[in-house]
C-alpha cells in the first residue's frame, strides 16, 4: 500500500434525541435513537463500499459513537478520549436558536463558548489526533468515529485550514467523509456520504 492510496475516514455517530432537536451535545452521554441505529448500520454499507485495507478504528468514548462503530460493523476498535466532541460548556443541551436570543449571530465557529473549549483548544486536540493517526496511514487505512463539530475540525485541520473553516463542512448524523493525499498533499476525497434510511429526511 502506497502512502498516496491511504485513506483517513471520518464517521459521525447516528442520531440521538438531542441531535434530532439540534441541541449541543458534548459531555452528555446519550444512546442512539432507533433511527440513529439504522443510520449507523447504513453508514457501515458506505464504509464497506470503500473497500478499506485492514482499517485501524478509533472511536470517541461516548456511547453514541461506540454504538455507531459497532453497528457499522467495524472491527479492531480502540477508544480514543481525544475524539470527544467540542466541549460546549454552558451551552450543553442548548440550541443555536436559543443561544442567539442573548448572543445574536452566535456560532461555535465564530464566538466564545462560556465554560467550554476555545477554538484554539479544539484545534490543538484535532492536530494531536491527526498527528497520531497519520503515521498508521503508511500501512493501513484509519477510521475515526466521533462527532459532528469535532469531525468538521478534523477535516479543516487536515486540509490545513483554520478551525473556523470547519463551518464549510456540514456533516449529517451517520455520515462518512474520506480524507487522503493527492501528489503528497492532504486532500478531501469525499464528504458527507450517506446511505439514507427510509423516512430519514435530515
TrEMBL record:
InterPro entries the UniProt entry points to: His_Pase_superF_clade-1 (IPR013078), His_PPase_superfam (IPR029033), PGM_Phosphatase (IPR050275)
Pfam entry (one): His_Phos_1
Name of the top EC class for this enzyme: hydrolase
GO biological process entries: regulation of phosphorelay signal transduction system
CDD domains cross-referenced by the UniProt entry: HP_PGM_like
Residues of the active site: 13, 85
One term of GO molecular function: acid phosphatase activity
EC number assigned by the record: 3.1.3.2
Keyword terms, alphabetized: Hydrolase
Residues where substrate binds: 64, 85-88
NCBIfam families: PRK13462.1 (NF009993)
Listed name of the protein: Acid phosphatase
Species of origin: Nocardia coubleae
Lineage of producing organism: Bacteria, Bacillati, Actinomycetota, Actinomycetes, Mycobacteriales
Amino acid at each position: 500500500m502506497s502512502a498516496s492510496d491511504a485513506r483517513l475516514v471520518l464517521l459521525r455517530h447516528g442520531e440521538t434525541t438531542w441531535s434530532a432537536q439540534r441541541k449541543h451535545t458534548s459531555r452528555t452521554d446519550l444512546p442512539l435513537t432507533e433511527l440513529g441505529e439504522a443510520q449507523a448500520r447504513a453508514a457501515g454499507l458506505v464504509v464497506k463500499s470503500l473497500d478499506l485495507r485492514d482499517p485501524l478504528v478509533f472511536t470517541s468514548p461516548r456511547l453514541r459513537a461506540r454504538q455507531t462503530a459497532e453497528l457499522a460493523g467495524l472491527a479492531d476498535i480502540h477508544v480514543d478520549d481525544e475524539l470527544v466532541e467540542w466541549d460546549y460548556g454552558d451551552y450543553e443541551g442548548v440550541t443555536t436558536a436559543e443561544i442567539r436570543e442573548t448572543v445574536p449571530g452566535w456560532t461555535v465557529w465564530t464566538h466564545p463558548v462560556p465554560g467550554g473549549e476555545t477554538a484554539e483548544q479544539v484545534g490543538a486536540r484535532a492536530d494531536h489526533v491527526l498527528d497520531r493517526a497519520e503515521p498508521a496511514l503508511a500501512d493501513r487505512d484509519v477510521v475515526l468515529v466521533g462527532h459532528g463539530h469535532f469531525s468538521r475540525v478534523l477535516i479543516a485541520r487536515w486540509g490545513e485550514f483554520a478551525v473556523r473553516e470547519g463551518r464549510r463542512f456540514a456533516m449529517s448524523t451517520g455520515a462518512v467523509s474520506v480524507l487522503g493525499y493527492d501528489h503528497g498533499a492532504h486532500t478531501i476525497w469525499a464528504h458527507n456520504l450517506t446511505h439514507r434510511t427510509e423516512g430519514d429526511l435530515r
